[in-house]
Amino acid sequence: MPSKPQGFLRDAGLGPALLRRAMNLWPPFLGAGIRVLRISADFRDIEVRMALGLLNRNYVGTHFGGSLFAMTDPFFMLMMLHNLGPDYVVWDRSGSIEYVKPGRDEVRAHFRLPAAEVNRARRATTHGRKYEPTFHVAVVDVRGEVVARVSKTLHVRRRPLAPARRAARTGGVATTR
C-alpha cells in the first residue's frame, strides 16, 4: 500500500515567500513572537528571530526555554523535505537543546542545509533504506553570543513507488520491488 502524503501544506506548493508568511501567522509562532525573516528560493537557508516579550518570558524574565526550542523546531525538516521532493518522507526524529546563557533580548537562528547533505540523503536512501542525519544550529543574541545550542535528528526515507509511477520510471514495464 503506498504511503500517504505528508500533509496538505506540502501538496499546496507554497513557495518560500508564501510559506514564510504562513509560518509567521501560525499560532505557536505568533504567540511566542517568533518571526521567520527569510527563506531562500532553494529552501536551503532560513533566518528566524524572536524578540523577548510578555508571552515568551519565563519566571525570571528571560526567554522561556520552550520558545527557544520552538523557534528551531520545524526548519531542518522543512528544508530537507522541500529539497528532496515528493518521493521522500521526512520527519523530525529527535531534538535536544543545551541552554548556554539566559536570553535577555532578541535572539536569532540561522539554518543552512548544504547541497552535499541533500545529495547524501538521496544516496543513503536508495533501495528504501532510512537515513537519520543530525543537524545543529545556535541561537544567538544581538551581540552574537550563543544563548542555546540545538541538535535535530531527521528521519529520511524514499517513498515506495506506486505501480503506475514505477512503470513510468522503468519505461512502461511494471516491475516489483
Tell me about this structure.
The protein has one domain (8-164): Roll (Thiol Ester Dehydrase, Chain A). Strands 1, 2, 3, 4, 5, 6 and 7 form a 7-stranded antiparallel beta sheet that branches. With 177 residues, the chain is α+β, with helices and mostly antiparallel strands. The model has no long low-confidence stretch (mean pLDDT 89). Helix content is 30%, strand content 30%. A hairpin with a 4-residue loop joins strand 6 and strand 7.
General shape: elongated
Instruction: Note the gap between the termini.
Output: 13 Å
Proportion of residues in helical segments: 25-40%
Q: How much is the radius of gyration in Å? A: 19 Å
Segments where pLDDT lies below 50 for 5+ residues? Answer: none
CATH architecture: Roll
Spell the H/E element sequence: HHHEEHHEEHEEEH
Mean pLDDT across the residues is: 89
* CATH topology value: Thiol Ester Dehydrase, Chain A
Estimate nothing, just give the exact number of structural domains. Answer: 1
Figure out the total of helices.
Answer: 7
The total strand number stands at: 7
Strand content: 25-35%
